[in-house]
Specification:
The protein is mostly helical. Helices cover about 60% and strands about 0% of the residues. It has 4 helices and no strands. Helix 1 crosses helix 3 and helix 2 crosses helix 4. The longest helix has 12 residues. The protein is elongated and about 50 Å long.
Length: about 70
């Protein structure tokens, strides 16, 4: 499952509209629509704002490279 679908499912579970998510997160409605359709490419900061509203924690890991 991609992040856009996951956000859409969480939003539906919480009973909030795309407009509500936009209002609560401060992220533009077009960005949210694009992300849920799988065509958006938000910055990490934008994604974090959205995830905070839907109650999801973002964890970033850096892969170790072997030389």
């Amino acid at each position: 499952m991609d992040i856009g679908s996951y956000i859409k499912d969480r939003r539906a579970l919480l009973g909030i509209s795309q407009q509500d998510l936009s209002d609560y997160s401060g992220v533009g409605i077009s960005t949210i629509k694009d992300l849920e359709r799988g065509v958006g490419n938000p910055s990490i900061l934008t994604l974090q704002k959205i995830l905070d509203v839907v109650g999801v924690e973002m964890v970033l890991q850096v892969k170790q490279t072997v030389k």
